[in-house]
Specification:
This protein is an alpha/beta fold. The protein contains twelve helices and eight strands. Strands 1-2-4-3-5-6-7-8 form an eight-stranded mixed beta sheet, sandwiched between helices. Strand 7, helix 10 and strand 8 form a beta-alpha-beta unit. The radius of gyration is 19 Å and the shape is globular.
């Protein structure tokens, strides 16, 4: 498995580099050519977790993946104040500026989905379209979520990555393990290879402290960026936030992968990729439209 993974990486990587950005160095890779498509990773992975997407989308687009602050080989600041949602969104902005990009498609999973969504709110001129996957964990009970993430962050600093020994076998990851045990094992190995310092501060300073998805309603109602929301039907913490996003963002569409958990991009990479490709082609063909006014109740029009 690892030999094949290394072989594929050697075949598809065009450029690997580091960007010095406003006091932080981020590691990024570029593959393919064309309109930029940027991927923002989840808490449990770094840029390497997008290998299925890099191989597929580099045939059509200029694909950019990067490891967020706190994730090797990017810099790992050793203080909590260096981690927040606003800071990580700013990192993406500075990376895009560094690369000389005027507009891009931006895709994020989980933690990366929060980055992509909030980047779209803050920089609508740059965001040609958004893909928000498996996003919104903790939004239904933010106070409890903040306490839980702070507790796990403290354990990470005390025990290292072994504090997350149950993370990869939780209820939203078991579908992945059952379907693809080899891929799941690689995911677990990459999780354990992350930095306990970077992971703990990311968990406490960013993930646990970010605003609930539901608190963004007024801003989301005004966001006119084409948006695809993707969830697995067994990713329970993200179901209600996904429905909320679909109902709130004027140009949003929702796709649900059956019997699928949180790790969408590696659990069901072919379905995930095809959904995104169809969406981007609709955006390019100007057939991805605003949903128009919502009906308040029933299935008949308001006039009826």
């Amino acid at each position: 498995l690892h030999k094949e993974y290394r072989r594929q990486r050697q075949m598809c990587i065009r450029d690997r580099s580091k960007a010095e950005l406003e006091g932080i160095t981020l590691n990024y890779e570029e593959n393919g050519s064309g309109f930029p498509l940027i991927f923002c990773h989840e808490f449990g992975q770094n840029a390497e977790g997008w290998e299925h997407q890099v191989k597929f989308f580099s045939k059509y687009y200029r694909v950019i993946t990067y490891s967020a602050r706190g994730y090797p080989p990017s810099d790992i600041p050793d203080n909590l104040q260096a981690y927040s949602q606003d800071i990580v969104v700013a990192d993406l902005y500075h990376l895009i500026t560094h690369l000389g990009i005027d507009q891009a498609y931006i895709c994020g999973l989980s933690m990366g989905g929060s980055v992509a969504l909030n980047f779209g709110l803050k920089h609508p001129d740059i965001s040609k379209a958004l893909i928000i996957a498996g996003t919104g964990s903790g939004s239904t009970n933010p106070d409890n979520f903040k306490q839980e993430t702070a507790r796990f962050a403290a354990k990470l600093r005390e025990q290292g990555m072994s504090a997350l020994k149950n993370y990869s076998v939780g209820p939203v990851r078991m579908q992945f393990k059952n379907k693809h045990p080899d891929r799941w094992k690689l995911f677990q190995q990459r999780l354990y290879a992350n930095s306990p310092i970077g992971s703990s501060y990311t968990l406490e300073g960013f993930i646990g402290s970010r605003p609930s998805i539901f608190s963004l309603e007024e801003s989301l109602q005004k966001m006119l960026c084409p948006t695809l929301i993707i969830i697995g039907d067994e990713d329970e913490p993200c179901v209600e936030p996904a429905l909320f996003l679909k109902r709130t963002i004027p140009m949003a569409g929702l796709a649900v992968l059956p019997q699928t958990g949180h790790t969408l991009n590696v659990e069901e990479p072919e379905k995930f990729n095809n959904l995104i490709l169809d969406f981007l082609q609709a955006v390019e063909n100007q057939t991805w439209l605003s949903q128009g006014p919502r009906l308040k109740s029933g299935f008949l029009s308001n006039e009826d």
